[in-house]
Each structure stands twice: as C-alpha cells, then as structure tokens.
C-alpha cells in the first residue's frame, strides 16, 4: 500500500527531526526541509498528500510559501497545515485566509497526536 | 534616554517576543518527552516513568507560565485586549482536556466533560478564554488528592454560557476564600502538596472574564472539593 507522503518545512532542526521521526514511525513517507525555498522547489515535483509548514522561516516566510503554493495550479489543492508557535489571532486569521486547512500551535499539541490529526484532515479532504 | 526607551518599547512587546522565543525549545523538550512516554522508543521502568511524568508536568507548567506572563504584562499596562470572534467554547474545552490527558494521568485523576444543553457559537476572545479554562482545569489537577475526579460542564443558562469545573480535591479554606483571586496569592496547601505555581493564574482569569463582561466565582468546602464557575454573555453579533 502506498504510504501517505508528507513534506515538512520547519527550520528548527530538532523539531524537524522530531516530527519526521514520529510520522515515519507511524508509516508516513516524509520529506523534510529546513528552508522554505527548498521545500517549495520539491512540492511540485513530489506532489505530497499534505504539507506541514512553519511560519517563521529564513529568507521566505511561511506566509509567502503558502501564498506561492496556493497560486500554483499544480500545487494549490495540496492541503497545508500550519504548525507554529505564533498564536496571535491575526496570524491564525491570515494563515487560514491564505488557504491553510488547519492551524496548529506547536506547544499545545501532543506530538503523539500528530499522525491522527493528519489522518483526520486527509479524511475530511477526501469527503 | 529612558524616555526614549519607554516610548519605543513596551514591556508587553518585549515579553511577547521573549515568550515566542521560549516556546520553540519548550516545544522540542515537550515533544521528546512525549515520544518517550508513548513507548515508541521502548518500555520504561516505574522510576523512569515517574521521572518522565515530572518532566512532562513541568513543561506544562512552563507553557502556562509563558502564557500567563504575556497576559500579566498586558494587564499591568492596562492593555489587556479582548478580541471577540464567533467561537465554539465546547470545542476549545475538548481540545484542552485532550491536551491535559498525559498530565492528568500522571497526577492520577480523571477529567470528564458534559455539555448539558445546546450551546451556541458566540462572540468571545477564544485565546483569552482558552487560558482561563486552562488555568481552572490545571488547578483542579494539581490540587487533587489522588484518584481525583474532575467534572467539567458547559450549559446555556438564560442569556449566558456557564462553564463549571467541579473537583473532589483539597478545597479552599474559609480564610483563604477572599484571597485566591489576588495577584501572587498562593494557597498554604501548595507548601505541603509541593505544587509549584506563580499565583497569577486566577488573577489573570478574573481579569480576562471581567473584561469580557462575564463573571467568575467558586464554591468550595475544605477537603471535599471546589467548583469554579465562569459565565459569559451570549452575544452573536
């Protein structure tokens, strides 16, 4: 059975590894990137099932990356989940308006719930 | 120079930046501990589990401190802003209880949640009210006597939404009842229970609820338990 493919764009190498390890141990295929531009270059090529996107990133912010994903016909339908510790209403609103499917607060979610959260989002997308 | 500094930088802005910076390493520590507790990396012995639970409990404590720090700096500058948006308190409570699962297990108590009648979506500040619910439920967890039961209820009552959190914990002594919403007040029980805290949670909760035009209160009997309540006016537009 084909594994669900996730692209993670997270510049903190510890968090990046933590999320990847958890998802890989739950049978996801994970491609991880520390910089938005690298992630962006691979999204069209890899066509992941879902993208986990941090907001504060070097060079290009998560908001800019999200905008580019949603403006590209090839990638606009890929669900993007924002995973950030920016928790101001304005950030959440902006992320959702730009087309994210969900906005998760890193510090509040349990990493053990992440595989289920992703599966539930993908289930909703398919319905 | 001092005036320049005062005009350029508000304490709450500095606290906001520092809080965000603190959250990243804390997210990593919490994530690593949760991976260990999930047994992904193998079974732990009893002592290791105890040690892990202590560490997890303290990451939650740090998380709560960071959030409260941000709120207290705004309250002190009289800049606590309430930004109402159409929100679902029921879903917020569910999420919080779910996030408290590991901590409540470690502290040997169970949390239930019942919605007593149909509750509407309504206008309130979801992030601020979330912090109030976190402060109240975490107090119920920390002040339980072991094998604690925490029952959270939500109901529509007249033109208000009523939240209540009932525990069978240590309760509040009569001579402390006047003081528990005061800034930095910490119950004498914290000493023998070894509960760490800042004495800010209920002070902040009161400020948030009152600024949202709601009310917050409690009923308590020492050694039997406490019920905390807050109500918010139902406003939809």
Brief overview:
Helix content of chain A is 44%, strand content 18%. With 127 residues, chain A is of the alpha/beta class.
- Characterize the main sheet of chain B: 5 strands, mixed
Nearest-integer average pLDDT of chain B: 87
Write the CATH architecture name of chain A.
Answer: 3-Layer(aba) Sandwich
Please identify, by name, the CATH architecture of the largest domain in chain B.
2-Layer Sandwich
- Summed up, the domain count of chain A is 1
> CA-to-CA gap between the ends of chain B?
46 Å
N-to-C SSE series of chain B?
Answer: HHHEHHEEHEEHHEE
The Rg value of chain B, from CA coordinates, equals 19 Å
Q: How many beta-strand elements of chain A?
A: 5
Give your account of this protein's structure.
The complex is a heterodimer of chains A (about 130) and B (about 240). Chain A has about 130 residues and is α/β, with parallel strands linked by helices. Chain A is about 45% helix and about 20% strand. Chain A has helices spanning about 15-25, 35-45, 60-70, 90-95, 115-125; strands at about 5-10, 30-35, 50-55, 80-85, 100-105. A five-stranded parallel β-sheet of chain A has the order 2-1-3-4-5, with helices on both faces. The longest helix of chain A is centred in the first third of the chain and has 13 residues, at about 15-25. Chain A is globular. Chain B is about 50% helix and about 20% strand. Chain B is built from eight helices and seven strands. Chain B has helices at about 1-10, 10-35, 45-75, 90-100, 100-105, 125-140, 190-195, 200-210, and strands at about 85, 110-115, 120-125, 150-155, 160-165, 215-220, 225-235. In chain B, the strands form two sheets. In chain B, strands 2-4-5-7-6 form a five-stranded mixed β-sheet. In chain B, strands 1-3 form a two-stranded antiparallel sheet. In chain B, strand 4 and strand 5 (about 160-165) form a beta hairpin. Chain B is globular, with a radius of gyration of 19 Å. The chains are: A alpha/beta (about 130), B alpha+beta (about 240). Chains A and B meet through helix 1 of A and helix 2 and helix 4 of B.
